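Contributing new records

If you add data, match the layout below exactly. Sequence lines come first and carry their own label; structure lines follow with theirs. Keep one chain per record. Anything else will be rejected by the validation script.
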Amino acid sequence: MDASSDSGPGPDQARQVSVLVHRADGPGEEQREAAAPDDPAPDDQEQGLVESAERHRLTTSIGLDLEGVSVFLELNAPYLGIMIFLFVCSHILLLLGFSALTAALRRLNRVARDGIAARSDRDGRTTRRLLLAAAAAALTGLPALALLLQPRSVESAMRGFWSCLLLVVCVDSALRVLLSSCKLGLAAMLRSEAPKARRRRSAALTFVEHAGALARSGAPLALWLRYLWASPSGTPVIASYLLLKTLEGRTRVRALAAAARQLLHSEHGSAPTPEEVAEAGSLCPICQEAPTAPTKLACGHIFCDACVSEWFERERSCPMCRAATGGARVKSCSDGRTSLAPMLF
């Protein structure tokens, strides 16, 4: 064997082996350094995820940017505050009147609720309280309504939509105070512990409530027609408004007619014979006691008159078999309270 083969690989073979080893090891140090800036570091990836989560948190399901909304409000809140301040200053009397009438109505509702819920009135204290509250409500509502409907007040309210709306709300508040006065007076005159008398009082209060609702729905009509007549597109808007008011009035007239039928025919059933009471078990299914002033419904079931009257405040069917009794009835308003929500249109 010659000396050249024993001395190992030559320079060319060593260079080829180095190239192969270099390729097997992957990119070189210089290549790795050049590619490093393009690959995000773990810290940068984590910061990107945090920012993405924060943007998702500040965005609603419909794509609204809450952060943008907050910036918008922050920029415009001072100007909106100035506009609100100007509106309050120019309508201070109406706003104060509305607040006072609403506070008075809340107080009247408490008096009506407590007076009607009182079971005994031997000394006449509850009746006197109801009558005094009715007189106070009348003395509050009538002057307020007269002041609000002065030509000067109406002319001033026709200058803008919000002014007209505020006047309508105040007029409706005065009407609600007068309606509460009627209910309080009626509750004072119909004070009785007899079940039939309580039922008639409940029907009378319900009728007054629906009659007042019909009157209240027609009160804003003249004000809004006057405002819409001065608008550029008055005729089609007025036609649409009158159509909607006609449909509303039709519904309220039907409710008033049902309340009137309920007042005229307040009996739930007929008086059963002692044999029928004994056959029914001599117990009222509602209170599980002996029937007091028993009443027999059209389906044949017998109840205490007071128990079934309280049931019919919520339902118009037999508590036992759910059979319909009588015609359609309107929702009872036996507690004497008046709604605090105004009619806007």
